[in-house]
Structure formats: C-alpha cells, structure tokens
Amino acid sequence: MSAHEIDYAIMGEEIQCVEVQLDPGESVIAEAGSFMMMDPEISMETIFGDGNRGGGLMGKLMGAGKRLLTGESLFMTVFTHSGGYGRKSVTFAAPYPGKIIPLDLQQYGGKIICQKDAFLCAAKGVSIGIEFQRKLGVGFFGGEGFIMQKLEGDGLSFVHSGGHVIERTLQPGETIKLDTGCLVAMTANVEYNIEFVKGVKTALFGGEGLFFATLRGPGKVWVQSLPFSRMADRILSAAGNSGRKEEGSILGGLGNLLDGK
C-alpha cells in the first residue's frame, strides 16, 4: 500500500460530513475550503497540487497548473497527525446538500473518474489529476465539461454528490442514458459518450436539454439526483421572481405593489 491507511465515519443525512481518523504520522489531503474541524494534534500544510508528483519545483507547478483546468484551486491542504500517540481526527464537510461517497480505489482497479467538482478528500498518496474526454461530442456538449478529474492510487477517496446517489453496476454492453449533469463518478472502463435527443419537438421544447450522456459497461457508475448546476439555476430563477408569485399568491404583481416592491 502506497497510500496511507485511514479510517473514517460519515455523519449526517441531508448535508453530510466525513470524520477521518489518523494514526501518528498519517495524513489526508483535501480541497481548500472543505475543512470543518480537527483535534489539536492535527497539523495542516498548504501545498501545490496533491503533493505526489515529482520533478522538483517545475513538476509541482505543472501538477498544480492542471488543476486550474478543472476549475479548482492551485493549492490543496494536507492534514497530518503530528502527535506521538493515539488516534486523532479531522472532519470535512460537503459544500451542498447530498451524499458523501467513500471509494476504495484498490477495489476499482486503482482509478476512478469523477466530475471536476466532486472530489472532497483522500488518503495521502492518492493522486488527483485530470482526465480528458477523447471524443469531441463529449467535449462540446457534455454539460459538465470536456475535462474531468481522475483519482489514482490504492487508498480511500471521498467524493460528494448532490441530492440522493444511485450506484449502478453495468454488465458488458449494458447502456444507460442520463442527464449530462447527473454523473458523479465512474470506473475507468466505462465508455462515456453523448447522444442527441431524437425528435425536433422533444429537443427544443422538452425542457431536458439537447443531449443525453450514455454510459456503456462493463463497470460501475454513481449517479446524483440533484446536480449543483441544476440547483443553482433554480435558486437564481427564484431570486429573479417576485416572492408572492412563487408562493402562489392570487394577487401576484398587485400584491407586490401593495407591499411597496
């Protein structure tokens, strides 16, 4: 095992957090901003990238620079048990309502591909890189972008989803279609492609977008019920409408006028 062997406990229901338990000398890496709380014996250090790439300063800069392509920060944070004895803990929180998914990379061939904002934290030794989708259709119309994250190694990693998460194991040749934003993660052998919605009327007026994501097995996929982009769109849409209209008031605009709005 090259990655540190960590233990964990996931807590909460709608908005979850994960408590990672470290023995002396063990470390966990996390996205900037995901930290919640830690024991006094835990030390933290900000690093370029995930700290696993060699090549001196230039190698670290290249590794960190690639993270900019996925919309993430140049930096990550390493939390290490610096005490001399006992097991201590550090806790990380999901950024929005949903589920935290623990992934033992050793069980999935040492590699998981996930959406670019799904990664939360991982055992020190796990490499967080980028995965280019090779097909132009995926790149142009994939909804969540041409570039995804890849988690490589043999340790524990944690990703988060929006809403409820469904795990599907695809048999060889088995295919499922889903909204392009609903994919959280997949094993490396799953074939990911984009399919145009058939029918002009359905495509233009169906309200579900112009493209499906198609996933072909064999492999395992994790699907979320509430992509963050969809939730953000609903919030922005509600913010642009009057409160009375959204609450079903029969007065509508007249009610807002009476309120002085």
From TrEMBL:
Protein name as annotated: TIGR00266 family protein
Signal peptide coordinates: none
Matching PANTHER family: ALTERED INHERITANCE OF MITOCHONDRIA PROTEIN 24, MITOCHONDRIAL, TRYPTOPHAN RNA-BINDING ATTENUATOR PROTEIN-LIKE PROTEIN
One Pfam family this sequence matches: AIM24
Biological source species: Paenibacillus anaericanus
High-level lineage: Bacteria, Bacillati, Bacillota, Bacilli, Bacillales
